[in-house]
Amino acid sequence: MLAGEIRETTPWSDLGQRCGNAQKNVMSVFIIYLAMFLVDWKLALMTLASIPLGILSMMIMYAIGKKRMGDYYKSAQVMNYRDFTFENEF
Prior knowledge:
mainly alpha
């Protein structure tokens, strides 16, 4: 497009320039779920139910992992200390 030209626009023609990446990602998820509800609402509800289950399982894994991280950091410090102290002796 040359400077000074007027182009014909539609509401969706410059969507890429008006929206950021996060907005595009959220909009695409909503559009996909809308299409799924239009095709089969039962399957769409089952798919939508997987989101809270995924969040719950990640929360449980995070809680378990957080309890065990102290031992991991202690052993990592011991290994790093050993590598540092014995490296120059050979």
